[in-house]
Amino acid sequence: MKALVATVVFISGCATTNTKPPDGLKVATESQVANCEFLGDVHGTSMFYGMFAGPAISKAQKEAFSNAQQLGANTIVWLPVQAQYGGTSVHANAYKCK
Protein backbone atom coordinates (compact mmCIF):
# COMPACT_ATOMS: atom_id res chain seq x y z
CA MET A 1 0.00 0.00 0.00
CA LYS A 2 2.82 2.42 0.88
CA ALA A 3 4.43 1.75 -2.49
CA LEU A 4 1.15 2.56 -4.27
CA VAL A 5 0.76 5.83 -2.40
CA ALA A 6 4.39 6.77 -3.06
CA THR A 7 3.96 6.00 -6.77
CA VAL A 8 0.80 8.10 -6.97
CA VAL A 9 2.49 11.03 -5.25
CA PHE A 10 5.57 10.75 -7.48
CA ILE A 11 3.63 10.54 -10.72
CA SER A 12 1.21 13.30 -9.77
CA GLY A 13 4.12 15.55 -8.91
CA CYS A 14 5.50 15.00 -12.40
CA ALA A 15 2.18 15.41 -14.18
CA THR A 16 1.71 18.51 -16.23
CA THR A 17 -1.05 19.51 -18.55
CA ASN A 18 -1.47 22.03 -21.30
CA THR A 19 -5.05 22.82 -20.45
CA LYS A 20 -5.72 26.30 -21.75
CA PRO A 21 -8.28 28.49 -20.07
CA PRO A 22 -11.39 29.30 -22.10
CA ASP A 23 -11.75 32.70 -23.75
CA GLY A 24 -12.29 35.44 -21.20
CA LEU A 25 -10.45 33.62 -18.41
CA LYS A 26 -6.75 33.72 -17.57
CA VAL A 27 -4.47 32.07 -15.05
CA ALA A 28 -2.43 34.36 -12.80
CA THR A 29 -0.25 34.26 -9.72
CA GLU A 30 -1.31 35.45 -6.29
CA SER A 31 0.70 38.67 -6.63
CA GLN A 32 -1.01 39.49 -9.94
CA VAL A 33 -4.48 39.52 -8.35
CA ALA A 34 -3.64 41.77 -5.40
CA ASN A 35 -6.03 44.49 -6.65
CA CYS A 36 -8.77 42.16 -7.91
CA GLU A 37 -12.10 41.24 -6.35
CA PHE A 38 -12.11 37.73 -4.84
CA LEU A 39 -15.24 35.87 -5.97
CA GLY A 40 -14.75 32.47 -4.38
CA ASP A 41 -13.12 29.08 -4.44
CA VAL A 42 -13.55 26.79 -7.44
CA HIS A 43 -12.58 23.18 -7.90
CA GLY A 44 -12.71 20.27 -10.28
CA THR A 45 -12.33 16.54 -9.80
CA SER A 46 -11.56 13.38 -11.71
CA MET A 47 -11.78 9.80 -10.54
CA PHE A 48 -8.43 9.01 -12.22
CA TYR A 49 -4.96 9.37 -10.68
CA GLY A 50 -1.49 7.83 -10.83
CA MET A 51 -0.40 7.04 -14.38
CA PHE A 52 -3.55 8.82 -15.60
CA ALA A 53 -2.79 11.98 -13.60
CA GLY A 54 -2.17 14.14 -16.70
CA PRO A 55 -5.61 13.56 -18.27
CA ALA A 56 -7.20 13.62 -14.81
CA ILE A 57 -5.73 17.05 -14.04
CA SER A 58 -6.85 18.34 -17.43
CA LYS A 59 -10.44 17.17 -16.85
CA ALA A 60 -10.48 18.62 -13.35
CA GLN A 61 -9.07 21.96 -14.59
CA LYS A 62 -11.78 22.23 -17.24
CA GLU A 63 -14.41 21.74 -14.54
CA ALA A 64 -12.78 24.41 -12.37
CA PHE A 65 -12.63 26.82 -15.33
CA SER A 66 -16.35 26.29 -15.87
CA ASN A 67 -17.08 26.93 -12.19
CA ALA A 68 -15.02 30.14 -12.30
CA GLN A 69 -16.93 31.39 -15.34
CA GLN A 70 -20.23 30.72 -13.55
CA LEU A 71 -19.04 33.01 -10.74
CA GLY A 72 -18.26 35.75 -13.28
CA ALA A 73 -14.50 35.44 -12.83
CA ASN A 74 -12.00 36.46 -15.46
CA THR A 75 -8.89 35.30 -13.57
CA ILE A 76 -7.98 32.28 -11.45
CA VAL A 77 -5.01 31.37 -9.29
CA TRP A 78 -4.30 27.63 -9.07
CA LEU A 79 -3.62 26.02 -5.73
CA PRO A 80 -1.52 22.80 -5.50
CA VAL A 81 -2.98 19.76 -7.31
CA GLN A 82 -4.14 16.93 -5.09
CA ALA A 83 -3.63 13.59 -6.85
CA GLN A 84 -4.07 10.77 -4.41
CA TYR A 85 -5.43 7.27 -4.18
CA GLY A 86 -9.04 7.49 -5.30
CA GLY A 87 -8.88 10.54 -7.57
CA THR A 88 -7.44 13.87 -8.57
CA SER A 89 -8.72 17.29 -7.60
CA VAL A 90 -7.71 20.84 -8.43
CA HIS A 91 -8.56 23.97 -6.53
CA ALA A 92 -8.27 27.63 -7.46
CA ASN A 93 -9.30 31.04 -6.25
CA ALA A 94 -11.50 32.95 -8.67
CA TYR A 95 -11.19 36.73 -9.16
CA LYS A 96 -12.70 39.57 -11.15
CA CYS A 97 -9.88 41.83 -12.32
CA LYS A 98 -10.16 45.12 -14.19
Would you mind describing this structure in some detail?
The chain is α+β, with helices and mostly antiparallel strands. The protein is 33% helix and 30% strand. It contains 2 helices and 5 strands, in the order αββαβββ. The protein has helices spanning 2-14, 53-71, and strands at 26-27, 37-46, 75-78, 82-84, 87-96. Strands 1, 2, 3, 4 and 5 form a 5-stranded mixed β-sheet that branches. The chain is elongated, with a radius of gyration of 14 Å. The chain starts with a helix and ends with a strand. Mean pLDDT is 83; it is low at 1-16.
Strand and helix map with partners:
Elements lengths: L1 H13 L11 E2 L9 E10 L6 H19 L3 E4 L3 E3 L2 E10 L2
Parallel strand pairs: 1-3
Antiparallel strand pairs: 2-5, 3-5, 4-5
Main beta-sheet strand count, sense and barrel state: 5 strands, mixed
* Shape, principal axes of CA atoms: elongated
- In quaternary terms, these chains amount to single chain
Measure the end-to-end span: 48 Å
Task: Report the β-strand fraction as a percent range.
Answer: 25-35%
Report mean pLDDT, rounded to a whole number.
83
**Number of helical segments with 4 or more residues:** 2
Structural class: alpha+beta
- The radius of gyration computed from the alpha-carbon positions, rounded to a whole number of angstroms, is 14 Å
Low-confidence stretches: 1-16
Helix content estimate = 25-40%
